Amino acid sequence: MKRILIVEDEPVIAAGLQDDLEAEGYSVQAVSDGDAGLQSARAGGWDLILLDVMLPGRDGLSVCRELRREGNGTPILMLTALSRENERITGLDVGADDYLTKPFASGELHARIRALLRRATPGVAGHGFGNCRFDAESARFYKQGKPVELTAREFKMLKVFLAEPGKILSIDDLLKKVWGPEMFLTDRVVYTHVNNLRAKIEDDPAHPRHIISLRGLGYRFDP
Ligand code: CA
User: Which of 64, 110, 195, 206 has the fewest CB atoms in 10 Å of its CB?
Assistant: First the structure.
């Protein structure tokens, strides 16, 4: 189920959006100001953020700019007020993926959301999982919006895991894909690197939720 975060301060609009999107089969959570929006977005796990521009405290533009600056690539659909042409342009300038002018028809909203979710399929803008973001092209990795340095080997290992989510990768698979076929190495090198990677990507490395050990089989990556 796709998860959508709504950041909207007008309770009637927020509740209306939430009902509407839940009826469409999305899992929805709504917050009512910019700081709460930023916090929830940083916590991660969203497939899309509906972000109102005019918010008390930190406005939607600032939230969007900050998330992009931190490397957060979650698709953002900006909600702007009627006839504020500048808001739309600025919204796209600060990294929003699309915008919708209020008031809008629910069918239009659904179509825009579907389009953004389609575009967000992994590969182009990088991979998001949990509260992490990984951009293979620029070799950058962020956890909760903060950059984390990966060694070359950890980088390669994460790339291998991300390429095959939900699949069992044996120790031999990992040795071949991360180190190369001709290297003579013991299984231990895999355990060590998996543990180092867990320490960087997992909230609780002792109880990993992304890199799962499967006794006697290897590992499975759960995004
Ligand atoms: Ca507003």
Answer: 206
Residue-range domains of the chain with CATH: 3-120 (3.40.50.2300), 151-221 (1.10.10.10)
Tell how far the Cα of 8 is from the centroid of ligand 1, in angstroms: 6
Centroid of ligand 1 to alpha carbon of 53 (angstroms):
6
Q: pTM to 2 decimals?
A: 0.59
Residue 66, helix vs strand vs coil? helix
Residue carrying the six token digits 């069992």 = 168
The rounded Å distance from CA 32 to ligand 1 centre is 9
Cα–ligand 1 centroid distance for 89 (angstroms): 17
**How far, in Å, from the CA of 55 to the mean position of ligand 1?**
5
Residues 6+ apart with CB under 8 A from 186: none
Amino acid at 83: S
- What is the Å distance from ligand 1's center to 25 Cα? 25
Structure tokens at 48: 């899309």
